[in-house]
Structures are given as structure tokens and as C-alpha cells.
Amino acid sequence: MTTRVEAVHAEQNVDQLTALNPDMLGLPTESAGHGEDGFVRVRGARENNLRNVSVDVPRDAIVAFTGVSGSGKSSLAFGTIYAEAQRRFFESVAPYARRLIQQGHNPKVEQITGLPPAVALQQRRGTATSRSTVGTVTTLSNSLRMLFSRAGSYPGGAAPLDSDAFSPNTAPGACPECHGLGTAHTVTEASLVPDTSLSIRDGAIAAWPGAWQGKNLRDILTHLGYDVDVPWRTLPREQRDWILFTGDQPVVEVTPQRDRVAKPYKGRFWSAKSYVMHTLTDSKSPAMREKVLRFMETGPCPQCDGTGLRPEALAVTFAGHTIAGLNAVPMTELAEIIRPTTLLATAGTASRKQSSESNEVAVAITRDLLQRINVLLDLGLGYLALGRATPTLSPGEMQRLRIATQLRSGLFGVIYVLDEPSAGLHPADAEPLLAVLDQLKASGNSVFVVEHNMDVVRRADWLVDVGPRAGEDGGQVLYSGPVQGLDAVPGSVTRPFLFPGNPAGSRADGGSGTGAVREAAGWLELRGISRHNLRNLDAAFPLGVLTAVTGVSGSGKSTLVSKVLADIAGTSRQASDDSRVARDEPDIDMDEDGGPGSVGHVAGLERIDRTVKVDQKPIGRTPRSNLATYTGLFDAVRKEFAATDAARSRGFGPGRFSFNVAGGRCETCQGEGFVAVELLFLPGSYGPCPECNGSRYNPETLEVTYRGRDIAEVLGMTVNAAAGFLAGVPAAARSLQTLQEVGLGYLRLGQPATELSGGEAQRIKLATELQRARRGHTLYLLDEPTTGLHPADVELLMAQLNRLVDAGNTVIVVEHAMDVVAAADWVMDLGPAGGDAGGKLVATGSPAAVARSGSSRTAPYLAAALRDRYAGAER
Q1: Is 831 helix (H, G, I), strand (E, B) or coil?
Q2: DSSP state letter for 150
């Protein structure tokens, strides 16, 4: 199709829609007060890979934007439509105020008309801090604190406290010992000196640094008169306490005994505790912090019992509970605790000097709290507690929390732009979400969703399909109109998945069809698992097959696989150099308790040689990290450039062709390739470096070419283009081939990690693993690998996972996509619900066996997926 044909097609759809059924989308029949004709009209969008796109989408409707990963749908919905709405809003703000607001970019688009204000709800993980909780995200904690401040039951003679006194995140409320964190890191003599039979000279103080620093501290002790050659346990108690715990840092003149020539110097003493705390607080090295953490004992703060609050706040109660107690109970229980207060027919007058649980403030606040909690209960989040840290939440849970907040805002006439609202949701949890989208529309708003879930797309009023492929092969609007009309667009990759009855439909099994289910080569058994909501659970994982672990949100599946199994298998296999649980950077366990839980018995680990956890964490957090550097293919490319005659004659080694170190990089931009332009009250912008024009390298480095291309031009190539250009470089060719096999051929080699989605990052990690030598007996753990992937990309992913299994490895995926579950060899379904009502194995067996379970909430959805799968195989 040409662009002109697409535009005409879209216009015809608009005319047909409004002429045949003007009320179908809830579109206004009169234009007064609603812009031109009820449509947002985009003309000449060129953001990212969009190719001068022009498209019309209706307001007051649910519009789904579809297309393969990297096709440009997010660039259209977020990068263009939402960005322009945000830009227009900021134009109405005073210039001085704009300087205080982080502004977005100006989208590359000629014109957008009929555009109302917009609110974006994008996928993003919670901040990596336990101070961010469900209560703070939803602002429910503010109301709860006010309830205790104005309507709590105080001890006799105690004065009412301000609401800040009930928050662990404020100076008046935070426990002085743990600073509101609820956990305390302490050191003891036993943790600092594990072997008391050793002398200080022999390394009794294990927490001290090694090499010269440790010898320096020992020499200082000698000059201070301490005996460093006797067993530690023979030293007097006062000496041991001073060496380990003193805060004093005396400076003495030291003459090292180990030097042949005495060279006195001034040395400062650090006690073992001071050194550990200083390293933990100030060191920039994750490895150093990890080392000293081994000498600390971490647990609930003894002063506040893990609540993070001061005693005076914990002395106040409401309905017999402290605020820490109410923060710890599930919201379903919290709703029942405050419900009696909301039903009070008469209420006393509120007084600032005297608090009462039955005054008018108590009734008003609890009624507001209950209404807001009910919204969260309707979204299936009743199992969460207000004190639950946001880093422990899934993207789907975070998305629903933000949506619930918007439902209470009561906005009218805005566009809500949602990024995969169904991501991370079990099909049973997605149904309440669809009702929420309908409610937003019924409230007079427009809902634009970037979505890969075909069940959500089918419920939309309008569909914009972007493609046909990704990257340079995408960026075009293939179709814009009612959902059913996409069936007449053969060039759409979305079409066969949206209409599975079509003979052109596909399966998400990577082309393995409905072949025989693989049999387990053995079992990995874990008994007596206790962690979070898993209580004394026994689980057996089949080896040598593809296993899908399912269950509603909060049922415990990620805890079982990504925490318990990853910890057990990863720790036991640390003796192998190849064993790893994460590759990109040190894995931060953001569990609420921070501990590994407990497992009573483990059997079958001897059958596993390696453990690899492939998650959706970024492959890097700065633009300097990219696909080429992460996969290692850039090392091979730099060696090829260094081996050219031009490089040898100049004395250039492989390091010369790195943009991360001085020498070959452009020093004006420090190898970034761009410079930031600060415009004060206007949105800041980035522009190519004026010195290197965005190449990242200095002119001397760019003079060296390989097959007629300089290093910057190679980094600018897509994976598909580089596969041909670097075919003669085996190490690079192998990496490029695996990247193509997982569907990432559209990415540029030098594309910054900050521009990659979570799904793209996970596939890069998988491709990096696939390029390794196949040797079998590896355990692969993947947590929701299909998040952010179009069904066509899921097929590519499944093909690679099946390759891993066929090579003798074990693959275990935590998954909500029923097409993937139906293609697995074994299914383990947890539930039956979330939170305390979950944590049990409801059903295990083949997909067909689990689909017949009468107690599994997954069963009906899996049964439907199996019917579609077998129907597709028969066609």
C-alpha cells in the first residue's frame, strides 16, 4: 500500500463509522465545544522512525495502537501525540515556573489539530527504595496519617501529633536509629572477627581491608602499644572494644617495619566498625560495598521493631491498631477495619486539642479512604498492603495503582495515553482493567493504549496499526479504523493474531506446531519453601523441558522462580565460572524482607551445571552502554580496525576505537556524540556535537577504515546491515546472527541502552547467551519474557527457547501469555488468588491437564488458548 492509499482508506473508515453508527464510539454528534469533528488529526509526524505519518484518530473512544516491537507505535502515541499535548500545556505556564519543571521534547510533527490535554501512564519500575510504597504512590498514606493525627486514640496526657509524625519519611516521624528504613545494619565482634584464635597480624579482624591499607592499620596499632601477635581472644575486653568500635581516629607517626629503608609517615587509625560504615556509605564501588556487607548483621531495627517510626507515633491507635499495623494488613482487611467508622450516623465536633475516633474528621477521612480503597479492590489489588515497597511490585501492579489514582481525579475531556496497561497481568486480572478503561471513556475522556494483548485490542473502538516491520522497515500507518477492518489489510503483521480463525494465523510456539510433549530428564525438587506468601510449599521442576509457571498477580510465582529457585540454583553453582544470575550489573534483591527465606530440602541440583537468569533490567543505565558493547561484538570490531594497515602505521590499538576512553574519542563531547543545550524556560534539547558531528570520535581515529567504513559508520549500522558487512568476522557474525534470530535486526549497533525497552533488553541478554557454546545442562530462568513483545516477536522468542531445550537445557518461564503457556511442556499454576490467599500449587501437569483443573483460575483461559492452537494446526 502507498501512503496515499492508506490515508484514503483511513478517511473512508472515518466516514463509514460516523455515517453507519455515530453513537458506536460515543463520538459527539455536534462539533460545538469538541474541536472540529471529534478527531485528533496528526500531519507529518517524523519522530524516530515515523515516515512523515498522517493519521486521524477519534476522541472520546478507546484507540489501540498496535505493531511489532520497534514499529513506531510508541513514537506516534507517546513521542508525538502526548509530547505535543504536554508541550502545549507548558506554554500556558509562566516562564519562571517552567524552569522548575522537567519538560519533554518538542515532537517532530508539522501539525496536530483537535488535541485535548493528555495524561500519560507509562510502564516503569518503582524506584529502587523501600521508602516508596503502595501508600505513597496512591497517596492513601497521607489520608491515613491525617486520620491518626486528628482522630486517633492517644495515651492519657499525650498531645495530638501532626501528620508528619506518623511518616517514616519525615524528620519528625523517622526512627532516629534506622532513619525510618525499619532495618538496621549493625556490626558485632563475632561478625568482625570470625576466628578469635588468630592474631591481628594473621588477619583476625577480617573486616579490615587487605594489602597496604591493612598493614597500615596494623602498624598504627603497634605504635599505639597494642600487641598484634597474640591470639585475639587473649586481648583484654577494653582493648578489643576500642580496636573494633571506637569512633576516635588518632593520627600517629608510623615507621613501617617491613621497609628496608625507614620512611616515617603520618597514619590515621580507623576502627573496624568505622571502616565498614564508611565504605558502605561513601564507596562508589559496588564490589567494596558488597564485601563489607558480609561483616554486618541486618535485621529489623530493635528500637522501632522494624516500623521506622518513633515510639510516640506507635502509641496512637485507631480501631485498636497502630498505623504500622494498618500499613501491614491487606487492603481488603483495611477496608473492613475502617468501615464501621464510615457508617456512624452521628459524629462529634472535631477539636485540634482533643482527638476522637468518632468525630466528624474520622468519618470524613474514613469515607474518603474507603472509596479510594474500593477502586483498588475493583482492580484486583486487595491483597496488597499500603506498606508494600514499590520495587517489589510488578509493572502490571504499578500500572493499575496509577490508573486507580487517575480514576479518583475526576478529569473530563482529556486523553489518557497508556503504555501496555495489560503488561504483567494474568488474563483474570486484565478483565477488571478493561472495565476501568470503559469507565474512563464513559467519564468523557479518550483512551489511547499502546497494546500487544489481542484481547484488549479487540475491545477497542478504533485501531491504528503501525508497521509493517520494525526500525527502518516500519514507521508507516498501515491501517486506521474500526478493529474489524484490519482483517482486510494483508500487509499487517498484527492481522493473523487478532483474527486467529484466519488461515494466515500463526502460533506462538516458534513453529514447533502441536508436536509431542517433551518428557522430563529428571526433577529438581524444593521442599518446605517459606518466603513471602509461600508457606511450607513443595515444588518439583522437571529438567530438560520448557516449564511455564502461571498464576494471578501476587500468587507467588515470581517469588518461587526469580527469588527462591534463582537463589538456590545460583548459589549452588557458584563454583562454575560460567554460572551467573545476572550479567549486566550486580543484582539488587528488592524484597521487602531482604532475606532469602528458607528451603527445607533440595534435590536434583547435581544435574545442573549453570544457572542463567534473563530479566528485563536495562543492559546499562547510560547512553554509553549499547547493544554492541553488551554483547561483546564491539570488541571483535575494534580488533579488526586495529589490525588494518592504517591503524598499525599509526600505532593504534583496539582501545583507540573505544568512545569510552581518552585517545580516540572526541574530547568535546567526551564520546557522547551529542551536547545538551539548556534553554531555561523552554524545553532543553540535545544536538550533535559540533566538533565530531555526532560521530563520537576525533578526526584521526575516523581516518582509519575497514572495508571502506570508519568505526562511527559501523556503529550506525543496523544489525541486519552489519550482518552482511561483518560476515568475515566470526565473533561478530555469531552475535549478529543470534540478534537477528530473536527479532532485533532493526536495532543499530550503537543504539544507547537508554533507548531500549525492557523486552528489547531481555532479548539482547538472551541473544548474548545463545551465542555461547551449546553444552546443555543449563537452567534458564525468565520472568515474563513476553512483556512488551508483539505476538510475532513472541514466536521468535519461543523458537529460541525451544532451541535451548532441544540442546539439553532446562527453561522455566513465569508467564501470563496463554499462547506461550499452551506451547510449554509442563505447567505449574499457583494461586488460587493473590497475597495471603495465594502461595499454593493449584495444578501441575501438561497444559491440557492444567486446563481441565476445576480450581485453577488459569484453566479456562488456557483451555481457550489450546483450542485456538489445535484449530490452527488443523488448518
Answers
A1: strand
A2: H
pLDDT value for 511:
41
Give the DSSP H/E element, type plus range, for residue 334: helix 331-342
Question: 244 and 189 in contact (C-beta within 8 Å)?
Answer: yes
CA distance 379 to 406: 13
The HSE-up count of residue 14 (CA atoms within 13 Å, CB side) is 18
Q: Which residues pair with 686 in a beta bridge?
A: 676
Check residue 677 and give its pLDDT. 63
Residue 874: the pLDDT is 58
For 121-137, how does the pLDDT look when each residue is reduced to its tens digit (9 = 90+)?
876 544 456 688 999 98
**Strands 610-614 and 778-783, bridge-based pairing:** parallel
How far is the C-alpha of 836 from the C-alpha of 833, rounded, in Å? 8
Give the model confidence (pLDDT) of 28-56 as tens digits: 333 333 445 899 999 999 998 999 999 99
CA angle (169 as vertex; 164, 174 as ends), nearest 5: 80
Residues contacting residue 685 through CB under 8 Å, at least 6 positions apart: 105, 106, 676, 677, 679
Contact yes or no for 777/576 (Cβ under 8 A): no
CA distances from 759 to 363, 447, 782, 799 (A): 46, 24, 12, 16
Q: What's the N-to-C CA distance of the chain in angstroms? A: 28
DSSP code at position 107:
P
Nearest to 802 by CA among 817, 835, 780: 780
Point out the least confidently predicted range of 98-107, 135-144, 653-662: 98-107
Check residue 159 and give left, alpha or beta (phi > 0: left; psi -120 to 50: alpha).
beta
Whole-angstrom Cα distance, residue 771 to residue 765?
A: 10
The string of DSSP letters for 255-318 reads: --TT-SS---EEEE---HHHHHHHHHHH---HHHHHHHHTT-EEEE-TTTTTS-B-HHHHT-BB
Rounded Cα gap, residues 170 and 306, in angstroms: 16
> Which pLDDT score is estimated for 6?
39
Residue 554: alpha-carbon gap to chain centroid: 16
Closest residue by Cα to residue 465 from 480, 448, 443: 480
Residue 714 sits at the vertex; the CA angle it makes with 712 and 715, to the nearest 5 degrees, is 65
Query: Cis link prior to 542 (omega < 30° from 0)?
Result: no
Residue-level pLDDT at 296: 84
Sheet holding 53-58, edge to edge: 53-58, 39-45, 111-113
Give the tens place of pLDDT for each residue, 377-396: 988 889 899 999 887 776 66
Rounded Cα gap, residues 327 and 141, in angstroms: 8
**pLDDT classification of 261: cutoffs 50, 70, 90:** low
Distance, CA of 107 to CA of 43 (rounded, Å)? 12
Residue 80, Cβ neighbours under 10 Å: how many? 25
3-state SS track over 711-759: HHHHHCCEHHHHHHHCCCCHHHHHHHHHHHHCCCCCCECCCEHHHCCHH
Sequence length of the chain is 875
Helices 633-642 and 730-741, packing angle to 10 deg: 150
User: Is residue 483 within 8 Å of 64, Cβ to Cβ?
Assistant: yes
